[in-house]
Write a structure and sequence with these properties.
Blueprint lengths: L1 E6 L6 H10 L7 E7 L5 H9 L3 E5 L5 H18 L4 E6 L14 E7 L12 H4 L3 E5 L6 H14 L4 E4 L9 H9 L51
Parallel strand pairs: 1-4, 1-5, 2-3, 2-4, 5-6, 6-7
């Protein structure tokens, strides 16, 4: 079984890319789809109706959606295998930007909209930095100069990453992505692990403490004035 993990900010075009991927999979491909979102999603129903494939959906609620994906990935692989599927496509909400959903053996695809601003790739952190392919959507809505600047912003984050530019609604420019998917190896025998390091800890805000001010909290805390306020991780 192949494992595709597709992540990116909301409204970036992830589901449009997934539609094109499913449409263009080679003969003999039997995909299954898992949607991970926070409180509401309909993409699983839409893809089930359009392509007649098995789908599942899970809401992360109080948990980061990328964390939720790691918690349920083993179950999802067993579910897809029980249905004799040979490709599992996971769409993660990817809201945190500090976390990353990609694992060993997976093909990590980061989907970013070209209209999100030329500096947006610099804000993606491991969501982009640990991906294998960056798919830039909505390229029909920006100029050639803007596309080139956007591409260079991605290269600043990940110099060697493969970049695919597309109008995902029409499916233009996705031939290279489909070749990468076709050539990507199946899951191997070793234990699947996260590709990057998760955040260092959970703060007391995460467990429900509402008081403002770092003096009212403990664990991972940050005052406003620090010489290096950013933990960079991966």
């Amino acid at each position: 079984m192949k494992l595709l993990i597709i992540a990116g900010p909301p409204s970036g075009g992830k589901t449009a890319v997934i539609r094109q991927v499913i449409k263009n999979l080679p003969e003999g491909s039997l995909p299954a789809f898992l949607k991970i979102d926070v409180v509401h999603a309909t993409e699983d129903q839409e893809l089930a109706e359009e392509f007649n494939i098995p789908v599942k959906k899970i809401y992360s609620g109080d948990i980061c959606p990328d964390h939720m994906g790691i918690l349920v990935l083993d179950d999802a692989l067993r579910w897809a295998e029980s249905l004799s599927r040979n490709i599992l496509i996971i769409e993660s909400a990817g809201l945190c930007l500090r976390c990353t959903p990609y694992t060993t053996y997976s093909l990590g695809i980061a989907v970013i909209s070209a209209i999100s601003g030329t500096n947006s790739p610099l804000k993606m952190a491991p969501l982009l930095a640990l991906a294998d392919v960056a798919v830039v959507t909505k390229t029909d809505l920006v100029s050639q100069a803007e596309k080139e600047v956007f591409r260079e912003s991605i290269r600043k984050v990940v110099p060697e990453i493969d970049i695919v530019e597309t109008n995902a609604i029409q499916g233009t420019g996705l031939r290279y992505l489909m070749r990468r998917i076709t050539e990507h190896p199946d899951i191997g025998p070793d234990q699947i692990k996260l590709r990057g390091a998760p955040p260092l800890g959970v703060c007391t805000v995460c467990i429900g403490k509402k008081e403002i001010g770092w003096k009212n909290h403990f664990g991972v805390i940050r005052p406003l004035d620090m010489p290096e306020p950013l933990y960079r991780g991966d």
